[in-house]
Amino acid sequence: MKLAEEESFDSAWIADVGLHRETFMMCALACQGTRRIRIGTGVVNPYTRHPGLIAAQVATLQEMSHGRAFLGLGAGGYRALRQLGISTWDRPALTLRESIKVIRGLLEGEKLTFRGSVLAVANAQIDFQTQARPPIYLGVMLGRQGLRMAGELCDGALLVGPLGNQTKRIVETVKQAASDSGRDPQEIDIAMTAPFSVSRKPVEAIRAAKQTVAELGVLDDRLRPAILAEGITDEAISRVKDAVQQGRAAEEAVTDAMVDLFGIAGTPSDCVEKIALLRKIGINQIVVGRPARQSPEMMKIIGKDIIPILR
């Protein structure tokens, strides 16, 4: 986080994945070690945490960070939640919609009573003075309900991508929902998380991205319709799955075309060119996928040769 701040990154999205390190603890540590960078979750879910507790946690983070917090909320990663015996798909759209209402109300200082189809709170209120409400981002993939919910109820959306020719349609769905709800579409901050790899040697950058492309894109069944629509065959997907299941390196099966579809990889100028194209269709923020796998040298290249050009 300190290095990211030094290299002029704007935001730090800290994942909440299964039984990895606890997200809000990591956010608190990041607050103590930084002064400028925005810090938030990417993303927490209303299945492992009650939305009321999420509201209190992000309000605490907002206080600790002196106003630098944000909340990323989503339905949760199904592979991770299965470990805990939790059904991710128990009315996810309705659960998220009710969660957003509860979290927003509590963060705005309300004494809230709410009884929905999934959630209920009675005379709930955060027990300390809350600062300005942190922005809420909804993490969504392809589902139209989720995309429209982000535009209707949230301050921003966290998309998974890029997804080739479908990226523009996804962005337009979010913005149209904002407009239909009487909101200014330009005020919706649209972020996109992407496997990211940059090197002075493009072949090395593409190779380094392949494992993350496999995990965040090719192997996620929720993205399968998008993958097939972009011309990647069932046979190609199966080769990636077989490689991973057999313990072989994903780069043996992940093609350069898959990296081009799901990732941002290559030389600094290659990455700048792709990000510029994404900006033209409405992506405001690129989230560097899997920063833990980025070497300090790679982050320094981003800070020196990519961020200044795009600012």
Number of helices: 13
Question: What pattern of helices and strands is seen along the backbone?
Answer: HEHEHEHHEEEHEHEHHHHEHEH
Give the uncertain stretches in residue-range form: none
| Share of residues in strands | 15-25%
Rg, Cα atoms, Å: 19 Å
CATH topology: TIM Barrel
What is the global morphology? globular
Please estimate the helix content.
Answer: 40-55%
Number of domains: 1
Instruction: Report the biggest beta sheet as strand number plus sense, adding barrel if it closes.
Output: 8 strands, parallel
List the helices and strands and how they pair.
Layout: H1 2-6, E1 11-14, H2 23-33, E2 38-41, H3 51-64, E3 69-73, H4 78-82, H5 92-107, E4 112-115, E5 120-124, E6 136-140, H6 144-153, E7 156-160, H7 166-180, E8 189-198, H8 202-218, H9 224-229, H10 234-245, H11 256-262, E9 264-266, H12 268-280, E10 285-289, H13 296-310
Parallel strand pairs: 1-2, 2-3, 3-6, 6-7, 7-8, 8-9, 8-10
Antiparallel strand pairs: 4-5
Helix pairs in contact: 2-3, 3-5, 5-6, 6-7, 8-11, 12-13
